[in-house]
Specification:
This protein has an eight-stranded mixed β-sheet, with helices on both faces. A five-stranded mixed β-sheet has the order 10-9-11-12-13. The protein contains 15 helices and 13 strands. Helix 4 crosses helix 5, helix 8 packs parallel to helix 10 and helix 8 packs antiparallel against helix 12. The longest helix has 25 residues. The protein is of the alpha/beta class and about 375 residues long. The protein folds into two domains: about 270 residues, Acetylglutamate kinase-like (Carbamate kinase), CATH 3.40.1160; about 90 residues, PUA domain (Archaeosine Trna-guanine Transglycosylase, Chain: A, domain 4), CATH 2.30.130.
Length: about 375
C-alpha cells in the first residue's frame, strides 16, 4: 500500500490499479441552470493528471451532455421532456462537453479523445471487441478517453439508461482494475440518508447479496441524473463479476479523487473473481431475448459449474435463435445465470425435461450435449 493512501482506497492507487475508469455524474458537472461547474472540474482534472503522471491509465465516463445542451437550446425539463428533446440536447451539449474536457486536460499536458457508444456497441460481441481495441490503444498511448452514451441517436430500446452501468461495461472492455463512481452521495447506506438521520455508511461490500440490493434507493438525490443507487448496485454487479473493484464516493467537494485516496471515505465493492473476457462480457450484458426456467436440481448443478442439460429445464419463454443470449431462472424466479443458447427456442421447447438419450429421436438429428454450455454461460 502507498504511504498516505487508505487501505480501502489503495485498491485504486496507480500501483494496484493500472487502468481506472472514473464516472462523473451530471449534478457534479452541470448546475441546475445548465452551467458547467468549471472550478470543480479543474480540481478533478488536476487529480487525474497526478494519477497519469504516476503511471495510471485513466478513462472518464462523463455525464452532463443533455443538461448542458438543454440550456444552450433553451429546452425545459433539463432537456428530458421528450426523447426528441433529449437527443437534440445531447447533440448540442456533447460538443461543448468534449471541448471542455479537451481544453482542461490539455492544460495539464494530457490528450483527450471522445468516444460515444450505444448499448448495442457493447452488447454485440464483435462491436464490443472493436470498442475494446480502440479504447485499449488510446489508453496505451497515454490518451484520456472521454466516454459517453451516444444519446443523440440512442432510443429508449437501445440505451444504457445511466452512465453507472456504462462505466462498469467500459471497465470490462478495457480490462480495468478499478471503477470509481463520483456521485452526489458518498456511498451505500443501510437506509436512505436523506430520510433517516441514523443511516450508516457501508464502507466495504465483499459480495453483493440480496440484503445489499435491498439497501438501494431508486431515486437519485439531485433529480438531474438518470441513475440512482439501484443503478450503482447494478454497475457494481457488472464490475465485480469481472474481478473489478468499484467505489462509490462523493464528488461534492474539490479534489474528489485525492480526498478519497487520503481518507478512503465511500463504499468499495470488491471484485469477486477473475472471469475470462468472454464470460465477463456475458455476465455484464444488459439485454437478452429469452428465458429458460429450471428446477432446483439444475440450479444446484449450475452453481457447481455444470452445463444446463434439457432434463433440468421446466419451461422455455421467448423467441430466440442458437447463439442468442438467454436468462436462466430458478424455481423461485431468481435469475441465476445467463448464457448463449445452443438451440433455437422451437427446438428447446421440444426437449424440455427430456433425458439426453431421448433427444436424438425427438429432434431427428444428433443433438448438442447441453441447452446452454458452461463455456458460454456466466453465473449472476
Amino acid at each position: 500500500m502507498v504511504a498516505g493512501v487508505s487501505e480501502q482506497a489503495g485498491r485504486f492507487s496507480p500501483i494496484a490499479c493500472r487502468r481506472l475508469i472514473v464516472k462523473v455524474g451530471s449534478a457534479l458537472l452541470v448546475s441546475d441552470k445548465g452551467e458547467v461547474h468549471a472550478d470543480w472540474v479543474e480540481t478533478l482534472v488536476t487529480d487525474i493528471a497526478a494519477r497519469a503522471e504516476a503511471g495510471q491509465q485513466v478513462a472518464i465516463v462523463s455525464s452532463g451532455a443533455i443538461a448542458l445542451g438543454a440550456r444552450r437550446l433553451g429546452l425545459g425539463g433539463g432537456g428530458r421532456n421528450s426523447l426528441e428533446d433529449a437527443q437534440a440536447a445531447a447533440a448540442a451539449g456533447q460538443i461543448a462537453l468534449a471541448q471542455m474536457w479537451a481544453e482542461l486536460l490539455s492544460q495539464r499536458g494530457l490528450t483527450a479523445a471522445q468516444v460515444l457508444v450505444t448499448l448495442d456497441d457493447l452488447e454485440d460481441r464483435r462491436r464490443y471487441l472493436n470498442a475494446s481495441a480502440t479504447l485499449g490503444r488510446l489508453l496505451g498511448l497515454g490518451v484520456v478517453p472521454v466516454i459517453n452514451e451516444n444519446d443523440s441517436v440512442a432510443t429508449a430500446e437501445i440505451r444504457f439508461g445511466d452512465n453507472d452501468r456504462l462505466a462498469a461495461r467500459v471497465g470490462q472492455a478495457v480490462g480495468a482494475q478499478g471503477v470509481i463512481l463520483l456521485s452526489d452521495i458518498d456511498g451505500l447506506y443501510d437506509a436512505n440518508p436523506h430520510v433517516d438521520t441514523h443511516a450508516k455508511l457501508i464502507p466495504v461490500v465483499p459480495s453483493i447479496t440480496a440484503e445489499i440490493e435491498a439497501m438501494a434507493d431508486a431515486k437519485s438525490a439531485s433529480g438531474m441524473g438518470s441513475g440512482g443507487m439501484v443503478s450503482k448496485i447494478e454497475a457494481a454487479k457488472i464490475a465485480t463479476a469481472a474481478g473489478i473493484d468499484l467505489a462509490i464516493i462523493s464528488g461534492r467537494e474539490p479534489h474528489a479523487l485525492a480526498r478519497f485516496a487520503e481518507a478512503g471515505h465511500g463504499t468499495v465493492f470488491l471484485g469477486e473473481g477473475s472471469s475470462s473476457a468472454r464470460k465477463a462480457w456475458i455476465a455484464g450484458r444488459l439485454t437478452s431475448v429469452g428465458t429458460i426456467r429450471v428446477d432446483a436440481g439444475a440450479t444446484r448443478a449450475l452453481a457447481s459449474g455444470n452445463s444446463l442439460l434439457p432434463a433440468g429445464v421446466t419451461a422455455v419463454e421467448g423467441q430466440f435463435h442458437r447463439g442468442d443470449m438467454v436468462e436462466i431462472v430458478s424455481p423461485e424466479g431468481k435469475r441465476v445465470a445467463r448464457g448463449l443458447s445452443e438451440y433455437d427456442a422451437a427446438e428447446a421447447r421440444l426437449i424440455v425435461g427430456r433425458r439426453s438419450d431421448e433427444l436424438s429421436a425427438i429432434l431427428g438429428h444428433a443433438p448438442r450435449s447441453a441447452l446452454v454450455h458452461r463455456n458460454h454461460m456466466a453465473l449472476v
